[in-house]
Amino acid sequence: MAEGTLTTAVRLARHVDRLEAEHPPIDLESVDWTVGRPVEFEARFGHVLDYMARVELEVDRNVLELMTMLPDPPEIDRRFYADVWQPQETRHGLILDRLQVELGREPADADLSSIGSKLKILGALGRWPAFQDVSRMIYYLTGMATERSAVLAYNLLHDGVIEMREGAMAETIIAPIKRQEPGHYAFYQLSARGLWAELAGWQKWLVRKLRTLSFAPVGANNDRQKADFGELMETLGITADLDDFARQISRVETELLWAQKRGLKVPPYVVAAFREAVQHAEARRAAASA
Ligand SMILES: [Fe+2]
Ligand SMILES: [Fe+2]
Question: Of 48, 71, 230, 234, whose CB is crowded by the most CB atoms within 10 A?
């Protein structure tokens, strides 16, 4: 094993050990459900809670997708998603979903079980190890973009919650959740850097192709969900600074995949996907007011 590989493996193992020891799933008993101005809060951020709750709960489906797409994952990946990621994220989802129900909303409509045919094809191809590495690279890139989006979105939501003087919620819900996201991002970043260095030219070419064709904002799998994400962007103030948000969530992806395109700040498919979400939200708003 090359020294670089060994270092990545050791660093990943230590990282997962640390996350497991220092970040148990948030204790439901620690949550203070007090909301000072529930009507105002729901009107402004209710739909944001719903989107985040759904995406966090759908981690159960993401794990099924992973097992389909990567039939033979490295042990460290399996440990991360089974012992750290899934328990933490599903708890985030439960808490946010209960919060929105406390505010009088319907619980999130999370899809916990359907697996698309594209993933089944990737899974079948994944029996060939060289191809499984391509799928694994896509998984790490998706993980990085998703977790970085989560960190930024929770920071913005936290600002809004503080601005509305909902101290209990900020302190016992949003802050504890947002503290757990950077550890997930770090796992994917370490994994992505390690694997990218090992891929052959054709594998890198295929990763670029697949990523260009399939990039989507987290949880935005159909037109309605794209519009929902566009609304979330609007409420959190991301739309106004869309290029910067896109740049931040794809910083390492740009560095690894597009190093040959000197000066490229952000892959065009990332910006296009966020713009599309904004357009879906605008179209739905226009239709509703017509
Ligand atoms: Fe989360
Ligand atoms: Fe996360």
Answer: 230
Specify the residue for token string 């459900």.
33
Domain boundaries, the chain: 8-21+34-289
Q: pLDDT per residue over 142-193, tens digit each?
A: 999 999 999 999 999 999 999 999 999 999 999 999 999 999 999 999 999 9
Nearest to 84 by CA among 6, 25, 151: 25
> Which ligand is the nearest neighbour of the Cα of 84?
2
Q: Which residues neighbour ligand 1 (ion) by CB within 5 Å?
A: 56, 89, 92
pLDDT digits (tens, 9 = 90+) for 225-270: 999 999 999 999 999 999 999 999 999 999 999 999 888 999 999 9
Q: Say how many Å lie between the CA of residue 223 and the centre of ligand 1.
A: 23
d(CA 278, CA 270): 13
Closest C-alpha to 58, from 220, 212, 176:
220
Q: In whole angstroms, how far apart are CA 47 and each of 73, 193, 240, 246?
A: 35, 35, 19, 21
Compute, in degrees rounded to 10, the torsion defined by CA atoms 93, 98, 99, 102. Answer: 160
Distance 256 CA to ligand 1 centre (A): 25
Q: Answer whether 0.70 is exceeded by the pTM.
A: yes
- Residue 123's CB is within 10 A of a number of other CB atoms, namely 19
